[in-house]
Fold:
Amino acid sequence: PCPANEVFIPPKFCDNRIVSSKYTVWNFLPKNLFEQFRRIANFYFLIIFLVQVIVDTPTSPVTSGLPLFFVITVTAIKQGYEDWLRHKADNEVNKYRVTVLEDGRRIRKESEKIKVGDVLEVEENETFPCDLILLQSSRDDGTCFVTTASLDGESNHKTHYTVPDTESDVESLNATIECEQPQPDLYKFVGRMHIYKNNEEPVLRSLGPENLLLKGATLKNTQRICGVAVYTGMETKMALNYQGKSQKRSVVEKSINAFLLVYLCILVSKALVCTTLKYVWQSKPGQDEPWYNEKTKKEKETNLYLNMFTDFLSFMVLFNFIIPVSMYVTVEMQKFLGSFFISWDKDFFDSEIKEGALVNTSDLNEELGQVEYVFTDKTGTLTQNNMEFIECCIDGHQYKYRDASSEVDGFCVTDGPVNRLQQKAGREREELFLRALCLCHTVQVKESTEQEVVPPPEEQRGFIASSPDEIALVKGAMRYGFTFLGLESKTMKLLNRNNDVEIYDLLHVLNFDPVRRRMSVIVRSKSGDTLLFCKGADSSIFPRVRQEEVERIRMHVERNAKEGYRTLCVAYKYLSEEEYVQVDSGLREARLALQDREQKLMAVYNQVETGMNLIGATAVEDRLQEEAAATMEALQGAGMKIWVLTGDKMETAKSTCYACRLFQRNTELLELTVRTLEFIGKRREDQLHDLLLEYHKKTNLSSLYCRSWSTQDYGFIVDGATLSMVLNSSSENNTNNYKNLFLQICQNCTTVLCCRMAPLQKAQIVKMVKNSKGSPITLSVGDGANDVSMILEAHVGIGIKGKEGRQAVRNSDYAIPKLKHLKKLLLAHGHLYYVRIAHLVQYFFYKNLCFILPQFLYQFFCGYSQQPLYDAAYLTMYNICFTSMPILAYSLLEQHISIEILLDNATLYREIGKNAMLRWGPFLYWTLLGVFHGLVFFFGVWFLFSNPALQDNGQVFGNWSYGTIVFTILVFTVTLKLALDTRHWTWINHFVIWGSLAFYVFFSFFWGGVIWPFMSQQRLYFVFANMLSSVSAWLVIIMLILLSLLPEILYVVLHKPRAPHARQSSTGGLQSPRSSARPLLMRTFSDESNTVI
Structure:
């Protein structure tokens, strides 16, 4: 309803469709072609093809049109298939059937047809199809439980509440909802509901995140709920946290583009030089129009400048082969076929899930060898998200629970653990401690469904909690004889050691929060005593208890923390009636406050949680993933910086970092969290600025000192709230200043831990590092849907096939079953793929320069007439047949260092970092090598031809013989050059290298030995056979091949190899001299004694 004096304009809301695909049937062709022709090379070959079609050029359009068509088609098919899979996934979500309540009837609809304002009914274990406000629940207390594993990675249950006054009858409810604009923060929501009842004044109810059920979350332990849709489709919090898939391009591709520009400049300058010299030469009398070749009338009337332009284009087409179109085909093939080696790797097979690695994007294989920053999720990635109670300490006495499987059951009074209990702290203290564990939490007992006639045995009883460690503590108390039976309408029941049921009234819960780092409950026993039980981190409990009690327990807590366990201290306090009345009124007043509610509650909490008695401490373990610590250590050894980004609490994440050896004992931790910003008498922003400056100074000093001295290692801890202050400061200047300081601190720290992160914040962090100075290569690894945005943002995204659904796997570039597989994926596969493709790129440019340089030099001897040096068949076949297979085999099979050594010696990874093999230095080396070889080929044969009588019968060779000798030397030299570089010989290498050379000889004989009916002129008729009848030709071919490769052979023979890495191998001796230290280009198989043949 709207006031009579106001015009009601209905707002426009989007529908509930989710779209993650990139193309439609209609725009696929134009959009895909546009994206492909944005590549410099594709666009360039299109232009050359059109020139060959339009202008009369020395070579046929087929020579450049066919390879281009092949590349475009293969890429389009690959990208079309990937997008079809995305369409399929979207349809599954959009066509999902949901129940909508309309006019008192239940109607089944497709999810995409939900509109804002529809009332939906959702049943247990169903996923919410959009963001809903909870109106009604089947539970008596108006609550429902949900899991948000697919949103923030937490698999524990969260409690949500219905809006008061809507419970009774949803069908007759008349209300309007006002709420904020859609925004991606999962933990924030502000709104209000006006409820209209029979001409009465409307009732106003405030709405918060506890009333909002998010799309993607799942209903648990509640039979059904009704809710009203507030955000739909692409406006839901889940969709706002999802970032569209952009085309990822590898560093190698960027290097190829840079090198292409250089070669394009060489090509244009060659064409310009030849065109200029042609017209200079023709300007001399008698040269342009000799007596035996007069111009036609049409030729005389043609415009001089048009002629010049046509000649320029003809030279461009003639020298066009310096730009290797077939390189793109080979690179595509190498990436596509190379990705199978990752899928086929038996080490990646996991027997539990019966699956191996999965490659979703083959374009990034070499990027795995360039990673500088690793961003990892914690829950489910570093840890198994599986809490286990390890031990506790009561009044300084240690109680370690032995493996329960060796005992008959865990609750018998006479068994081991309990007997040991009685001998130590005294029965009264033990029972008080165990009561605290049973009462101080927010755990619910899972309701048994109607089908289960026999209730489950106590040890298999299901618990639901907002944190898995709370369940671990309740189960820990069960082992020592105290069982929590559940909470019913503010009454908590527990079963003590004597099998008596104890009942407590739950008066107040003082919730956990990251600033206080503790939680408390106030309960009243049947005897009338009012007790406060409190549990929390040692740093927040110790100052609030008697100091003489602290020393007994501190030692245990520190020892447990060092072992990587999560520790909590437990304290209690008796409240007198006056104290309780005061606390009760303070809490009620604070909870009704509309402004500064949190601060007022905090003041009451702090007031009551003082002067407590410390009883003991607990140690809980979140099991790490298999080999998580070893994997992280290897990645750090390889020079990668590791950032842990998690939605979890700081204490938990910190202990995981210690357990994974990301933080060492001597690491100094710098904390930038809400807690450290709570500084009395200072604005938060000023305190943030001061802390950033202080930390920056500290870490900078450390990095200035020589690293060989044992300088201080720093770990940096930041939380989501502080990060949003850094990234979204009130003024633009401050934001940039804070960002720069923040980044510099992070870069000087060995490990960075970001906790309490929303999914989009994870992506923001990755983006910030990715766009920082030097554009470092980033890798994200995660297992839940909350990690999807950071997986998509990073250069390389890795999904782990974990417990939390498959969204991370679907959106990743590579998926692996376990975190431990990341080590081999990067240190072995990544390293080898990068080396292979870098060599492939450099080699391609080199062999095409060798190919075209003699063609350019030939123009100086043929009057710049665009006369080809090589036959058309040789021009077309050089890159496609004669030299393509050896380099493809090399780029798939080469192992310049064996995989075992790469895995044992992580530092080898650093040597190829920062795109080391595709920098300008190596590129210049290969280019000069190409120029040297080109000059040797051309002038070597030219010197031979200075002697006219090369055949027995005194006849001279013609120009096609000249070109064929040059071409023969060229094919043999570039192929043998690759053979010298090959370090890992297999039968395939032998087959393609010697096979290519044999095929060239066979083809030349065959092509020149038959009269082909479809050819108007046959330039090479018997030229090759005739050439090989001359001993001089044989001699010059062998001599020039040896002369070309001589510098490299001499270098290898005379150059002493650098000492291998001074790192002991597992056998105790130094590693084999098969070291990556020597440049890859400078190796032969002569010093390779242990290669596979």
Summary: The CA atoms of residues 395 and 616 lie 6 Å apart.
